[in-house]
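User: I'm putting together notes for a lab meeting next week and I want to include a structural view of one of the chains we've been expressing. I don't have a solved structure, so I'd like a prediction I can at least talk through. The sequence is below, exactly as it appears in our construct file.
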Amino acid sequence: MYCRSILLRFNFREMTACSRQKIQNFSPQNPVVLKNLASCLCTKCRGSFNRKLGYNFKVIPYSLLGTQQPIFSTYRCSGSLSDKNKSLVKKITITVPPSSFKSSLPEAFQNDGSQLHTVKVPVRLPRFSERLVNKCPPHIQPYLKLMRMDRPIGTWLLYWPCGWSIAMGAPAGCFPNLEMLSLFAIGAFVMRGAGCTINDLWDRDIDKKVTRTQDRPLVNGSISPFDAVIFLMGQLGVGLLVLLQLNTYCVVLGASSLGLVVAYPLMKRVTYWPQLILGLTFNWGALLGWAALYGSVDLSVCLPLYVAGTCWTIFYDTIYAHQDKVDDVLLGIKSTAIKFGDDTKLWLTGFGASMIGGLVLSGVSCGIGWPYYASVAAVATHLTTQVYKLDINNPSDCANKFLSNHQVGFILFLGIVLGMMSKPDNTDREEKVVEKSNQIETSI
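Assistant: Thanks for the context. Below is the predicted structure for the 444-residue chain, given as structure tokens.
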């Protein structure tokens, strides 16, 4: 019955393999399937109806208190497609079950027979990255989702420390090396995907039990573990090719971070500080970017920048971990979100202050111009706002605060670029000092 109606004429062939499997396994007697069947609707199919009809239709069957009669909810999107703050007109037709269930029903549905109820609920349209992934061939989509191409925030968070270091290593009055920025962008994209693949391989048994991660490719069966390992080898191969474009010092330094990449997924089983290991891994580019330019690392500049980035990672990933803290406690998974508990805001304030201190120290060592310090002040304001408005018991608010950290990385990168452009060029002065000292030695 369900396949014949096929969700208001949605194309069954255009759905992902996981979606087709869920529909084929559909059973009105299975409340779990009824509850989660909305995920069968691929964004690509909904997008085709958006273009044709101007609406975003979804049909979601669910079970009410174990009754055999499924209840269908039809969502109709109101407003223009470009409007990000849409509301849905939710029309629900309910067949009232036997009188034994009436006490649990809303007051509007206490009468026998079918009732029509209309409410407005918020809706989030798919992001550009999600639409891009869903337009790809169905057999490729699981691999793109495995490397989180539909969620690029992780790539940005991995890339920004690299960009900071490269921009800070630029000559006074010059823009950062665009070739290096591009090369590190490719490397960040590939290695972040490889890290996600490794993480999902380690955690596939845990992800089955966490609500937010139950639709990952290795959990829903759209990719086998063997295929994921082969895919991981390809990702690491591409990452190695990118690394080989750099000098020998960078190759050794970059390869040394692979141990952290592999070990991070295990840390949540061992310590309450897996975010610290993630910070040490994600901010390795703060060392690597400078080394790519000069063949060595200036610790007076790069070490404070690396520590600042690590504190930043602990800051935003603790917020991120609060989304899953209930499931993590039940599964015995450890994180800073669980360790900090109700004192999370106090800890976040400390890590935010440490980040700002590291950034200031790095800027002083580099002799950068005043726009950099203005951007550091803007970053401090941004972090303060996050801590002040954060609701650690609201997963949606935690997700929004986590995503906003992309702005932190961009603000700081822009400040570094402008600061290096306004940095005084002391090259001529240094040459004159050296020449004068040589003249004195010659005269002596």
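A couple of points you could mention at the meeting. The two ends are 102 Å apart (CA to CA). Residues 1-20, 26-122, 428-434 have pLDDT under 50 and may be disordered.

User: Perfect, that's what I needed.
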